[in-house]
Amino acid sequence: MRIQPRQQLLEVWRSLLSACYDKGVWHWGGRDGANSISDTEQLLCLLYPATEIQAFALDQPDDMSDDIRSVLIPLGEETRIGGALVGVLEDYFTRYTAPDGEPIFAAGSYLRTTDEREPSAEQYGLEVVDAYSMSLTLCIASLRFLRVFQRFVDKEVRREARELSARIRVLMPRVSARLTAAMTGLVRSFVVHTPSPKSEQGQAILGMLNQIGAPEDTVIAGIARRLDRVRVQMANDVKLGQTPDIDLEDDLLLFECGWSWGIDQKASPIDFVSGRIGDQPGYAVSRPDLYFTIVALDGIDDLTWRRTREMDLLNDEQRQLADALELRWDLTQRYWSTAARYGPGRWPLEDIPWRTSDGEESDYYTLAVATMVLKDFANRQTTEELPELVAVFDQLARRGRIISRLTAGDPAAALHYPGVRMALPGSEGIGGGPPLVWVVPDFATLLLKRSLQAWQLSGDVAMRDRLMSLAELTMDHLGRRQITTGPAAGLWDDAERVAGSQRPGLARTAVEPEPEDAAVQPSWYLTERIVECLVSADRNFREPPLAMRSMITRAVEMRSEAEHLLNQEMLEVGDPDVSQAMLSRIEQQLDEARRLSNEQPATAFILAGQALQQLYELAYARRDATRA
To answer: What pTM, to 2 d.p., does this model score?
Structure first.
């Protein structure tokens, strides 16, 4: 399937409004019911493209294109669309703000159990990193939209415009308050784990790092040297919300860093944050989880993006939190990139599947670690080792049956449906409830997004072609999972069409819909991630094509010969009505070829070639006339 971000995003918007918006009312909830995360994902399906892609912007109604206006007609005329979106945002922030003004991040119906019991009421109210990260992205997008749209509204003189402007002024502080809380939750969910090499967790880490069977003492000393700068910076600079009893001074201890599933049970309070989240107790154990780590990193990307700072969206409190998150973002990527590539032999990352410090193994964890290696490469703008990373992506695509069909009873099916189950250690016993798990069905979208990001980073034409082929094959897989019937047709996820009807034992909660309803109810979790992939593809396609040095040289050589022959031909001009007009057109072609030589050398090469052909025809015609 060819990736066409504009057309595909418009189809998502069309299906989204068909499923969610009726007679001026936005309907929340989908396959997994309504909760603070699912409803955030649902809203981001509309708002994320509108704030990340200029052509999809909804904050300047006068500049809206005809196709976007047509797709959004359920929201009203173009002058009404922005107001309708403000109303949806008001509804969202009302739903997820407590009566005392505190933001609500409860995971609710996304939580699953390991047995037949239902989570307790207290467990349904647990907050996870997904909620903080998604809310961070939503709040940044909301502030971008509201800031620009209010300037448009303030130019209007109608009474409705004045009322809308007043509503926006009330809404923006609520958005900012949720943003502060989400950032605080992410800071307090960051953990550093320092196991002894002799412990089970230490042995699991060493088992992944030691790919050549070296003595353990050699591996411990070697990884300590490689991570010395990360360790020192972690010890000296990571203070805000940190667990007080972490020992980073002892080089004989191993360490790993990242985000746990929620606020660390030992996290220190953050004094300058006035809300409850600044000092509320946490339940998550002090051990990083690879899934929640990449979720946190993706959310923090929106804070580190240049446009967020340029628009001055953050207040002083948020800037302090953003600096703390950016430091953790950088250290985490450096840590996992170093660990994944450690040693003189093959990378630990290439030893698929990756084994975590708690002994769990999955291809998903390999993809998660590969994600952090890619982020580190992009942050350092290095591509020297990108071929090895792309080879891992290829292998994961084969193992995950992205580029080949699933067979009966294929264990790879569980990667896609129901997804990888991840324990939430520390959640057991809360309110008398059972142990909880988090189910992750986004292996394909994660692979698609990273393939597109690697494509953007690569400076090699063959490598880009390989990555785009992988992205398109992954999009084929996801295309087969689209819902085909009902109001949600065109959204995701009907994974049973790909993964088959076998569903490994997984306890259902009372709020989870029956299987027969799943085919017509959208999964906002997966749909939102596909929207992210399409936005990433849009960014890629708007970049200028690669200009290879060899092609630039050939284009310059071709143009140089054509210009020399043009100069000769101008000395031979005979018929002013024919030859002069043609030579003028050739001169314009060569001027355009000169302009494009460095940015689009292949196009410049073709233009110069066309000019050479025309010059040859002129010279041949003149020689033929002379012989006659």
So the answer is: 0.89
